[in-house]
Amino acid sequence: MSPDQSSPRSGFSIFAVGALIGAGIALLYAPQSGKETRKLLAKKAKLLRDKAQDTIENAQELIKDGKAHLAAAFDSGHDIAEHKR
Questions:
Q1: Could you give the CA distance from residue 83 to residue 85 in angstroms, rounded to a whole number?
Q2: How far apart are CA 55 and CA 61, in angstroms?
Q3: Which residues have a Cβ under 8 Å from the Cβ of 26 and sit 6 or more positions away?
């Protein structure tokens, strides 16, 4: 992985920290009732859960693609080795 790219895990970590900071600030400054605040927190938690699920799915797809490329490279190397014999 090049230095320009971030891993899905670090991207999720940054998102999670930002979400927590944003939720904390919202709780401090929002003139809402407890019921409204609980609804807001539930909504934010759902968004965070959805983002986490998307990140997991992307990571699984990345791993699947990597395994396919690795298997293709291995098979290619095996074929070349067999051809050289």
A1: 5
A2: 10
A3: 40
Q: Please list the pLDDT of the chain residue by residue as tens digits (85 residues).
A: 444 555 666 777 888 888 888 878 877 776 777 788 788 888 988 998 998 899 899 999 999 999 999 988 888 888 888 887 7
DSSP string, 14-50: HHHHHHHHHHHHHHHH----HHHHHHHHHHHHHHHHH
Place of tokens 């699920």: 53
Which has the closest alpha carbon to 1: 53, 80, 11? 11
Q: Determine which helix (DSSP H) or strand (DSSP E) holds 13, and give its type and residue range.
A: helix 8-29
Distance set, CA 70 to CA 7, 34, 57, 81 (Å): 19, 53, 20, 16
